[in-house]
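Chain X:
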Amino acid sequence: MSAHPWFAGAATPRVLAHRGLVTPAEAAHGIVENSFAAVAAAHSAGAEYVESDCHLTADGVVVLFHDDDLSRVTGDPRPVAAVGLRELESLMSERGGLLTLAQALDAFPTVRFNLDVKAAGAAEPVGRLVAPHGARVLLTSFSDDRRRAALAAAEAAGRGIRPATSAGSATITRLVAALALRSRRGVRRALDGVDALQVPERQGRIRIVTPRLVAAAHANGVEVHVWTVNEPADMARLVDLGVDGIVTDRADLALRELH
């Protein structure tokens, strides 16, 4: 498995709190995903890993937010990129509190963050911000270009250990094709420079997580993390299959089930 510090010394199988932790009771009080309260709840529940998402505000601040716009979370249809930090803080004030990336890294110094770069413009500032914290950050994106841009920015900052990384969609597509062709060379090339595969169990009718994929990843020193798994029985089944991590909305249940 990867020698990167993000993986070292933590309980396995890894439980990655997907956008923090919002229990039904907290949701009933208006708390939303990726808020300060959600990350604090995950930390309080014992989660060592928090998965979150990065967007850029109109005034250039990296914030933890999943969607391109505010409609689902706040009812405001504007894009995140069109709203300034102070206004976004106001919109999130009764929803658990806005959390910038800088605040997250400072307020939760023992949490290992799994950060998905959602916007192209956020890649470079995300890389610069996480550079001093590379030992406890894994950078990812559906876009391999965004992922690599963030990693390059972190490396250029030269402040310590380069963050870990997981594969983007194009890399995973190449891997699945190489596995279908039984090409060991293709598998090695797809996994080169990757510390983890973070994938859904299925993509439509295609099963992504198979014993062959898990074995190939492990043979190349790469972990497999599956998202988003909320039923304890599914968590246990996937761990029995050999996966190394579970990305879940219910980190509290996963920690009880798996640890």
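Chain Y:
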Amino acid sequence: MNKILGYVLSPIFYLFFLLTMIIFQPIQWVCFKFGYQAHKKSVDYLNFFLTYCQVFLGNSTTFINKQEIPVDRPKIFIANHQSMYDIPPLFWYLRKHHVKFISKIELTKNIPSISFNLKYGGGANIDRKDSKQAIAEIIKLGRRLEANNWSAVIFPEGTRAKDGKLKTFQIGGIATLMKTAPNALIIPVAVENSWKVVQYGTYPLSAAEHLKWTVLPAIDTTGKDAEQITREAENAIRKVLGQNA
């Protein structure tokens, strides 16, 4: 039934998703001229509408955050990655924490609204074929987090888990961010069922799914190195997903 509904509803979803990106391209451009805060506000609302475009597929979105997260220190949100639809709710629901993403440099071109924000929003755009460039970009991001009390969202699986099965977290990006933003709070986020939206590919998208994000308690980093912290974050997410290592 999810697939059958998807054949009918996917064109409607894609229409409104694309319209949202096209409409917010000039809005972002104008807001950018008025400075960081104005631009950020436009990106926040872009991601609000991208998040709730899911209603055109009959999909529900639940974002659970019962944690008391301070705004006066940097944060590193460590999340699993299932599809491109993971990202808008993280932008919207964590907006007061000024979240920035580590993205492939290829995404900085030819995507309405998305490419503009990746270029000018303060995140890190990395070339996966150039490790020196990638590390340098992540170092710059870490320094921006530390200087501005911003936050980073990192997907340490390295690629999307298209079947929803969590991959082993890679340590490198987390270790670099922790080194350059030593005051950052480390917070795992579990993403559930986003992969189901694209389980049949880009068409049809799956309809009538329940997408869920859960912000988990911050990790106590006292006396722990980056590898221990990464494994603890991975295990916390695995527990929510009901998946063993």
